[in-house]
Amino acid sequence: MTAEPRTASHATSPILQITDAVKYYPLRGGLFRQRRNVRSVDGISLSVAPGESLGLVGESGCGKSTLARLILGMSSLTSGHIDIDGIDVSSVRGESRKRLRRTVQLVFQDPFSALDPRMTIGRSLYAPLSQNRIGTRPERLQRIIRALDDVGLDPSFINRFPSQCSGGQLQRVVIARALLLEPQVLVCDEPTSALDSSMRSQILNLLAALKKRYNLTLVVISHDLRVVHYLCERVAVMYLGRIVEIAESEELFKKPRHPYTRSLINASMLEEKGLVGCASARGEPPSPVAPPPGCSFHPRCPIARPECARALPDLIAISDGHQVRCPFHSAVEEGDSLANRTDMAEMR
Ligand SMILES: Nc1ncnc2c1ncn2[C@@H]1O[C@H](COP(=O)(O)OP(=O)(O)OP(=O)(O)O)[C@@H](O)[C@H]1O
Questions:
Q1: Is 55:70 a contact under the CB 8 Å cutoff?
Q2: Please, where in the chain does CATH 3.40.50.300 lie?
Q3: pLDDT digits (tens, 9 = 90+) for 155-192
Q4: Cβ(288) to ligand 1 under 6 A?
Q5: Is ligand 1 within 6 A of the CB of residue 40?
Q6: What residues are paired with 106 via a beta bridge?
């Protein structure tokens, strides 16, 4: 691995600004037909600088993909505001939706389902260019060849069908398709979870190199902490629709301050030792339909006190760029940290 993936860039104004984003899905039915909601995203505020990479981590169901869909304008906000490069994502229609597509693109999790098996790679790549009326036919072909070259594939892939490609090659095609409209922001939802470990490193290296070459802003969603540790300058930890901790990647993995972040890191290290299936924190995550009162992590928290059940703690700044939603954060032990592990180096 040669590229230096993580470099900080905070001086400029944000390209992505999320302000108090809420997404509730109404639940119908139930015994007394009462109105209830799944609180998928429950008041998230974030800003991401141009060229920065932000990781979103948390257990399954914490709202990572919902937040990604909101950023991409694929789902509407219940309340709050999302702005990408001056585009108000919540009110995009017609031409501004096209502008949004040219600004932010999604790298899908599963390359096998992301591409139509009946279409050649060339036709799959041609479609977004013709839909957005970009260039003449020869210019579109040139763009496709350049995008394939960017991801390390030669022009012969234009005539191949997905079934004639490996999983790693297909993920490269998916990344090429995301790059075709020259976006500034790439949202990568579990970009390597469908790949084996050797392919995973290659795709991570490719994303890091592309970020550097095109000054891309990355929002990386992953349950694999090593992926965000490798690719991201900052990491936000989500629990039940809220951010519980956010910090520069190195700081977060060396000095996690929220008990939930600590337990995620512990679980990640146990999984690497082959103890798969171990819970990241004791018990199951509570239902997002009826989250516990106060701090929603308190029923599973090893350092919970009676007052944790009473009021939702604020996200408080404990050092420059490091915020944590726990007033008892100083009781969280540092212990062994993911950032100190030698096997983290193997990702590079
Ligand atoms: N369309 C929907 N209707 C109702 N509930 C939904 C919908 N989409 C997501 N949810 C619920 O919102 C919560 C957050 O889901 P989301 O997929 O965003 O979590 P996640 O962190 O991305 O999980 P995973 O890692 O498993 O994809 C879950 O409880 C999920 O069941």
A1: no
A2: 16-85+184-347
A3: 999 999 999 999 999 999 999 999 999 999 999 999 88
A4: yes
A5: yes
A6: 187
